[in-house]
TrEMBL record:
Biological process according to GO: cobalamin biosynthetic process
A GO term for molecular function: nicotinate-nucleotide-dimethylbenzimidazole phosphoribosyltransferase activity
Similarity comment text for this entry: Belongs to the CobT family.
Name under which the protein is recorded: Nicotinate-nucleotide--dimethylbenzimidazole phosphoribosyltransferase
Gene that produces this protein: cobT
Pathway: Nucleoside biosynthesis; alpha-ribazole biosynthesis; alpha-ribazole from 5,6-dimethylbenzimidazole: step 1/2
Keywords for the protein's UniProt record, in alphabetical order: Cobalamin biosynthesis, Glycosyltransferase, Transferase
Organism (species): Nonomuraea jabiensis
EC number: 2.4.2.21
Positions of the catalytic residues: 322 (proton acceptor)
InterPro entries, alphabetized: Nict_dMeBzImd_PRibTrfase, Nict_dMeBzImd_PRibTrfase_bact, Nict_dMeBzImd_PRibTrfase_N, Nict_dMeBzImd_PRibTrfase_sf
Length: 356
């Protein structure tokens, strides 16, 4: 399924990009006056291979939830059971992601890819559990390569199912206490940064915990032999398995699945940024189908976005995860595309163009 998905991904269509750029300039507005929105519309035209690109409606948020063995090292002030408790909160509609999704008219699906507890069945819960949490990445690989591939394929499957039920835009979400440690390790490896530059304070930690977290990320890279550059997709899979989380792997698969279906994927915060680095290492063309929804306060996120060459749409200091930053960006993406559908041209509206 992974190989088949990678084979189906097409890069952006340069002709659609050129057409979309030219069309933007014929709309009744001064050239470039919509700033980043013009780039978003052009990008989505390239991704879809059509000008104007289809409206990205309806949208579906998938929140991938998992636990982390590195939690035992004291890298977060929150108990591990908050992961499963928040899953219950998403399912009953009480989390911030639910409020933002309701505001934006987006559906919410929760996917268990590795929560360290059994979950009762629920209508919006998809059970794709790989294991009851990863192993401690600072002592050895967090998961096997086989588990990493299964988690990637879980994400591909969720993207396929959501698109089959009508979604025309996918938004990434995550829930996993301690997952900012795994995110920092992935970003250090895939973006070639020092752990101290890309480790952040996650849900909120004091200086002593922060120092320990940086040391743990360093230990993870050392123990797993990840100091050299990644050169092949097989290196990327091994690095993902060594220091990633099940939700990172599944989100990487979700991105690949969306790209293969030519449906745009709006990325959330640092966890999605780390997952996008993995997806891009497996197939750089997948990035043509991604939009960076926002920039999280977590320092590794800016490093990941810079490495990917993605410009975040919203920058409001959020550091919650769940898909909240992606959900805030979604109406902006819709507005950018609607301009291409609804706005008159200078010719059709009889508006005189500038003379010099
Ligand atoms: O999206 C982000 O950029 C982000 C930044 C900081 C924290 N989080 C969320 O907080 C949890 C991980 O934080 P921590 O401190 O336990 O590693 C996890 O559930 C994430 O969704 C998310
Ligand atoms: C309460 C809480 C909600 C969250 N949502 C995403 N990560 C989270 C972490 C905590 C601790």
């Amino acid at each position: 399924m992974l190989a088949e998905t990678l084979a189906a991904i097409r890069p952006a269509d340069p002709r659609a990009i050129a057409e979309a750029r030219a069309y933007q300039d014929r709309l009744t507005k001064p050239r470039g006056s919509l700033g980043a929105l013009e780039e978003i519309a052009v990008r989505l035209a390239g991704a879809a291979g059509a000008t104007p690109p289809p409206m990205p409606e309806p949208a579906a948020l998938a929140i991938f939830a998992a636990d982390h063995g590195v939690h035992a090292r004291g890298v977060t002030p929150w108990p591990q059971e908050v992961t499963v408790q928040m899953v219950a909160n998403f399912l009953s509609g009480g989390a911030v992601a639910n409020a933002f999704a309701a505001q934006a008219g987006v559906s919410v699906t929760v996917v268990d890819v590795g929560v360290a507890a059994d979950l009762p069945e629920a209508p919006n819960l998809v059970n794709r559990k790989i294991a009851y949490g990863t192993a401690d990445l600072s002592e050895g690989p967090a998961m096997s390569v086989d588990q990493a591939v299964r988690a990637l394929e879980a994400g591909i499957g969720v993207a396929r199912d959501l698109v089959a039920s009508g979604a025309r835009c996918l938004i990434t979400g995550d829930m996993g206490i301690a997952n900012t440690t795994a995110s920092a390790a992935l970003i250090a490896v895939f973006a070639g940064r020092d752990p101290a530059e890309v480790t952040g304070r996650g849900t909120g930690i004091d200086d002593e915990t922060f120092d320990r977290k940086v040391d743990i990320v360093r230990a993870a890279l050392r123990t797993n032999g990840l100091s050299g550059a990644l050169t092949a997709p097989s290196d990327a899979l091994r690095a993902l398995a060594a220091v990633g989380g099940f939700e990172h792997a599944a989100i990487a698969g979700f991105i690949l699945g969306g790209a293969a279906a030519r449906v745009p994927v709006i990325l959330d915060g640092v966890i999605a940024g780390a997952a996008a680095l993995v997806a891009a290492a497996l197939d750089p063309a997948a990035l043509d189908h991604c939009i960076a929804g926002h920039r999280s306060a977590e320092p590794g996120h800016a490093a990941a976005l810079a490495h990917l060459g993605l410009r975040p749409l919203v920058d409001l200091g959020l550091r919650l995860g769940e898909g909240t930053g992606g959900l805030l960006a979604y109406p902006v993406v819709c507005a950018a595309v609607r301009v291409m559908h609804d706005v008159a041209t200078f010719d059709s509206a009889g508006v005189t163009e500038k003379t010099v």
